[in-house]
Amino acid sequence: MKNSVPERLKGRIVIFVWLCVIFLAWQEISFILADLIKDKMASRTLPYMHRIIANLFARGPLLFSHAAQTLSRSLIGFLAGAGAGFLLALGMSLAGIVERMLFPYLLISQMIPILGLAPILSGIIGDIGRTRIFIAAFITFFPVTVNTLAGFKSVEPEKLTLMYSLAAGRLAVYRKLMIPGALPFLFSGLKIAAPMAITAAILVDTLGGASGIGYLITYSLYGGFPIMVFWSSVLLSAALGILSYQMIAAIEKLCMPYKYGRR
Predict the structure, then answer these.
(1) How far is it, in rounded angstroms, from Cα 72 to Cα 93?
(2) Number of folded domains in the chain?
(3) Does 128 share its domain with 177?
């Protein structure tokens, strides 16, 4: 326990140092383009990071209102995809025939490019908001299913034999052994899927939505908004992806304190 606090602090220091390195490197390249080479397109190609951050705060109401639209729909899709993925993995674990029947189609579904799927779904559904939700759920579904199924399969056969030797029913086996054993794998899938769900929702926004971060990115590139809105939107998108990952990691620590040496 005594070593856990310094380790966490060390990790935060490393992250802070890397952020400083990225910031300084960005500033240096921007300086070379704008002030040394005198590139007329420097403000569009790679503007100064401090100007992007300043614009992010200056246009906060606009950016955060559109970010809320994207985040809310990606969250709904993420929860729906995660729930469906967990249930499918559970069904595959309970019945091997379900896995043999559905797993190949599950793999094939991931070969469909999102750029091609999103316009088709948008035309069928007829609502860009619902399309965002569906695409976010579609993106979330696969990593959660595959990782959770791997978690069920990772449980040692000796433990299963012991549970059945004690006359435990299937419900008790899954409640006390299989699901707890699969939790680390489930959270691995969730941490992969959370940023991807936000990215998917942003991608759908770029295909004709009237709100969301993708909408800001698209219309700032075509002159509807100042170009700094584009860079601020990109920075905000990256921040949302990192935040979503950290939120899942925090929930993981609450659900599995034993994994992190806490009681």
Answers:
(1) 32
(2) 2
(3) yes
